[in-house]
Design brief:
The radius of gyration is 31 Å and the shape is flat. It folds into three domains: about 110 residues, no CATH class; about 70 residues, Methane Monooxygenase Hydroxylase, Chain G, domain 1 (Up-down Bundle), CATH 1.20.58; about 70 residues, no CATH class. The protein contains ten helices and two strands; from the N terminus they run αβαααβαααααα. Helix content is about 65%, strand content about 0%. The protein is an all-alpha fold. The chain has a two-stranded antiparallel sheet with strand order 1-2.
């Protein structure tokens, strides 16, 4: 008996059950087709119908403006009211599909590591028939996983442990209960991976926050000569540049966020130097 979702992937029957179990193991595997061609065909069809309604409505308006008999005017009014109801219903469907297409268009393509993982699963288990193997439509795929928190370092780290699973990485990150007995099907523990990412991000930031304190404090204790001031300036500039690079490549901060954090970091160093110089002199 399979106790989803805690059983290994290879315990599920091959086909959609095993594919579904594989996809639910990692949000990065939530990869599906966007069906761009079908979206275009549906929108074009609805657009054509609305254009026909538009021409027909103009015809009713023209006939109503020249109608002389009361019965003729009433007949035109009834026909126009029915047409307006059809236009309203069809336009609601059109707007619904436009919004859906816009939402899908905002989704990004899957990352290279996640796509290769899905491709390897299909090649290893062959869960679907050839015409159902959607992963082959590479340009028509989207990922449901948000990528706001995925930095370049995260991508390289995941690429390292997924494409080169050595003994050390397997021992550190492999999930013993979900991996099963198939050596080609490795399931990693997301808690361990998130902890490793936090360490990779936290250690450099701590070093950048603590690192400049000692050299700046040592220089501030001596005589304030021109050489000392130049040394202080270059230390502050160097650590600020390292801090900005760390934020750029280890987070997905936007330009204004990167600028604000860099200015704040420089401000902390300046305040520290001013307080240290005042206390020593």
């Amino acid at each position: 008996m399979i106790e989803a979702p805690y059983s290994p992937v290879d315990d599920y029957p091959n086909g959609y059950p095993r594919l579904g179990a594989f996809i639910t193991r990692d949000q990065g595997h939530l990869i599906f087709r966007r069906f761009n061609w079908l979206q275009a065909r549906v929108l074009l069809n609805l657009q054509e119908q609305l254009q026909e309604y538009e021409v027909l409505l103009n015809s009713y308006d023209s006939r109503g403006a020249t109608a002389t008999l009361v019965s003729e005017a009433e007949e035109i009014t009834r026909g126009r009211d029915k047409l307006m109801q059809l236009i309203e219903d069809k336009y609601k469907r059109y707007v619904c599909f436009v919004n859906a297409a816009s939402t899908v268009a905002c989704r990004s393509q899957p990352q290279q590591t996640n796509y290769r993982s899905l491709e390897a699963f299909f090649q290893r288990h062959d869960p679907l028939r050839e015409q159902e193997s959607y992963y082959t439509h590479r340009d028509d795929l989207i990922s449901l996983k948000p990528r706001e928190d995925t930095s370049r370092v995260d991508t390289r780290f995941m690429k390292l442990i997924l494409e080169a699973p050595g003994k050390v990485t397997q021992r550190l990150f492999r999930h013993p209960e979900l991996s099963g007995h198939d050596d080609f099907m490795l399931t990693y523990s997301m808690k361990r991976i998130m902890f490793a990412k936090a360490v990779i991000l936290g250690v450099p930031l701590i070093v950048l926050l603590v690192g400049p304190i000692y050299p700046l404090y040592s220089l501030s204790q001596g005589e304030m000569t021109e050489r000392t001031l130049v040394g202080i300036m270059f230390i502050q500039l160097g650590f600020t540049c390292l801090f900005a690079c760390c934020l750029k490549y280890m987070t997905r901060s936007k330009r204004h966020e990167l600028f604000a954090c860099t200015v704040a970091y420089m401000g902390v160093l300046l305040v520290f130097m001013s307080q240290t110089i005042q206390s020593s002199h």
